[in-house]
Every structure is written in structure tokens, then in C-alpha cells.
Amino acid sequence: MSSALRSGQPPASAWRSVLGCPVGSDGVPTVDDLLAATREPGSGRSAARTGALLAGLPFVTAVGPGGVSPQRAGLERRAEAVVAAGRLAASLGAPLAPVLDRVAESIVADDEVDGERRAALSGPRSTATLLGWLPLLGIGLGFALGADPVGVVLRGGAGTTSAVIGGALLIGGRRWTARLVSRAMLAGSA
User: Fold this and answer.
1) Angle between helices 96-144 and 158-189 (to 10 degrees)
2) Predicted structure pTM score
3) Cα angle vertex 40, ends 61, 63, to 5°?
4) CA dihedral 67, 71, 76, 81 (to 10 degrees)
5) If you compute the radius of gyration of the chain from its CA atoms, what whole number of angstroms results?
6) Which residues of the chain have pLDDT under 70?
7) Separation between Cα atoms, residue 41 and residue 34, nearest integer Å
8) pLDDT for position 188
9) What confidence score (pLDDT) does residue 160 get?
């Protein structure tokens, strides 16, 4: 898009030729039109060119077939930023290419931060997964050593009580860890 603008195309023409999306009276596409154009770039020669132009944009490559994506809200926010940049440039008479370049840099920076956040939270997630499997490993180890852990649990008394308490703590710990990781992800994306 920026290349088309720098080559002298007017913004409305560049939106139509590069993305193949309709533009409004202000010369800028709507958010829905922009998202639709990035999901279905067109057909024939235009599709190949549009697909190649859009391949590097994070908000485009994250959309799956049919446009369904877990990051739908993030994609819409990014598309809204692109549309807002287009409208701002149109209303101020500013060149659109540098504004879109800044928006793209911001999107890339957001993706890098999101990747760093996911990497930082991968340790707690894997630890929670490992801790969830430890009771089964303990039962297997008990059998390997010749004990009867299932029999101890099923006979009642202290074995049953400890199994019930351990199960409750395991479920509570999994939920607590999931809530902490979820809050950390949401806090970083707000």
C-alpha cells in the first residue's frame, strides 16, 4: 500500500488496486471491507499480487480460512488503526504512506511484545502441566516398587482421605494457575 502511494497513486485508487476493497466517500475503506479484503484477496493476477503484498503483515497472516481466528478482536483493532490512520491523513491532507508505515511498525512492535509475553508464560504453563501429571507418575512408581497404591486409596481411611484432598488440591492448583496465566495475558494485551 505504501509503495503504491509513494509511486503517486491517490489513496482511494491505491486501496482499490492493492487490496481490491471498496472505499467510502472519504477515500478510505471501512474496517469490515478491509478485513474482508485481507481474508479474500481476489482472484487471478490480482490475487497473487495482493497475497504477496499482504503476506508480511501480521494482522493479515493471522487470519485463518473463513476468517475465523482466536485473535479476532486484535485483528479488528489493527484494522481500525489502519482505517483511522487513513481517515486522519485524509482529513489533515497529510501523506498516507508514512502514517501507514508507523501503524505497521506499531503492529510489529505489538506482535513482538505478545511473543515475549507468551515466552515468559511458557514456563508457568509447562510447570503446571508437569505438576498435573505427577500424581499419575506416583501411582505408576508405586506399582513399579511393588506397592498397591490403588488398593490403598480404595480401602478407605487415610489413603482415601489423602487421595480426595490431593485431588482437590490438584484441581484447585490447575484452576489457580490457569487464572494467573490468563490474567497475565489479558493484562499485557490491554
Assistant:
1) 170
2) 0.59
3) 30
4) -130
5) 26
6) 40-72, 188-190
7) 10
8) 62
9) 93
